[in-house]
């Protein structure tokens, strides 16, 4: 995958954290699953519903970023530190998997492990 394409995927990844539900509706695969601490395993409908009701992150720092591609699949792994208004920082190790669709890259899975 070209560096420009990979940079675009990292921008989408940031949007999942910082932007509203529109980022999820536009970039989440129809069959997506996510694993969140305290919430469990969520399908696309539950993911979008939970985002509608959760406060958004106001800041995000990503470090130890790694990306691999294999054909029509891309995996992003990184350490995240997110901040919400009036809350303690949240730190996690994250991994997201994207698949290439005719309309572009779509996230099909994401997992967060708090540290």
UniProtKB/TrEMBL annotation:
Gene3D superfamilies: 3.10.450.50. Residues 20-107 form the DUF4440 domain. This is Nuclear transport factor 2 family protein. It comes from Devosia honganensis.
């Amino acid at each position: 995958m070209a560096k420009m394409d990979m940079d675009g995927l990292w921008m989408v990844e940031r949007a999942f954290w910082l932007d509203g539900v529109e980022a999820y509706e536009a970039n989440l695969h129809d069959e997506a699953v996510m694993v969140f601490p305290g919430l469990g395993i969520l399908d696309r409908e539950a993911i979008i519903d939970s985002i509608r009701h959760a406060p958004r992150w106001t800041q995000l720092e990503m470090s130890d970023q790694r990306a691999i591609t294999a054909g029509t699949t891309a995996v992003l792994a990184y350490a995240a530190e997110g901040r919400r208004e009036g809350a303690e920082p949240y730190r996690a190790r994250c991994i997201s998997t994207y698949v290439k669709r005719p309309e572009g890259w779509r996230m099909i899975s994401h997992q967060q492990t708090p540290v």
